[in-house]
Design brief:
This protein is α/β, with parallel strands linked by helices and 392 residues long. It has helices spanning 22-36, 81-92, 99-107, 113-122, 137-143, 181-191, 214-219, 238-252, 284-293, 308-315, 327-336, 345-357, 359-376, 379-390; strands at 6-10, 40-46, 61-65, 68-73, 128-131, 150-152, 175-176, 225-229, 257-261, 276-278, 296-299, 320-323, 339-342. Strand 1 (6-10), helix 1 (22-36) and strand 2 (40-46) form a beta-alpha-beta unit.
Amino acid sequence: MPKPRTIAFITPRFADGPTVGGAETLLKTQARYAIENGIDVTFLTTCAQNHHTWKNEVSPGTRVVDGVPVEFFPVDENRDVETFHAIQQRISRGLDVTRDEEEAWIRNSVNSTALCEHVKNAGEHYDRLVVGPYLFGLCYEVSRIFPDKTVFVPCLHDEPFAYVKTLRSIFDSRIIMFNSFSERDLAKRLFGEAMAKMPVVGMGLRPFETDASAIVRELGIDSPYLLYSGRRESLKGTPLLCAYINTFRERTQRDVKLVLTGTGHVDAPPALVPHMHDLGFVAEQKKHDAMSGALAFCHPSVNESFGIVALEAWLAGTPCLVHACSDVLRRHCRESNGGLWFRYYGEFEEQLMMLLDHRDIATALAESGRRYVLENYTHEAVSANMMEALKT
């Protein structure tokens, strides 16, 4: 088909200020690609900011945010949170749940009747509905309204929720836009050969300038540090990272600090706290400066479909140290020759010691990673890929 003229991008939260997350950032960036290509874009989202409480904190209505027209709709407040969490805990532990329980879990996930009604009433106006990620009731419900014009951006992980049978219908959408080949391979394994024909788009990045000494001056530290940026929670591996760095300091007596940016509670051993600097939510420039000055950017998550912050770290001139159980991050590191990976503590210690004692290797890894991003994930190239996918 020809280039779409009108597109609605839909995700449960909009990336603005402290509302951070890979899926939110990705959909917002893709909306900007569409605007730059002359498409009439509307971003539909909820009034929630916190992905734990899902309270309505933003006023409903329409306004332009960072050049993107956004319509905010209230989250349904009648969800049975206790039922949702009880079923979610069973799913996350790999226990069997019935189809009725799956549907109750989705029904009591984050939903917005007002947003869905808007899509039903205004859906004919849009040539495409770009929806994601896969894990939320709202996205599931929206994908069923106009499946023939839905483009789903699943941000799929190999986790228990990916095996919920009720969610399989999401992958009947007209187009699935994957973020990486590893994500598409997973979808092919879970949902069949048809996934292999779907496009891999991801997100492009623009080069940026950094001051590698800015964070060192601000914090007054003279020791090397590892950096983590993003949400702090067990699914992202931050408790594991804190435990590993604390163990590393105790076993090796090497003074390596931990610096974090992002949101959420940090669960750290008491002995690590004096050597940990939590900057909280920071502006992009400060995050990039922190990346640039780090010994390495450590991404301990196993649940990634793309790994935006790892690519940013390479652009900032810093090698990556990632969890080997993330196919996406390990593949990025292997193909770029820009990072190392660990599966258990012994490998973490070995890799970190090498980065400390062989700075020439760390520099070479960082340079290879930067070349990889500049050759494969430019803003222009990914934008062109997305526009081609939307014509399918």
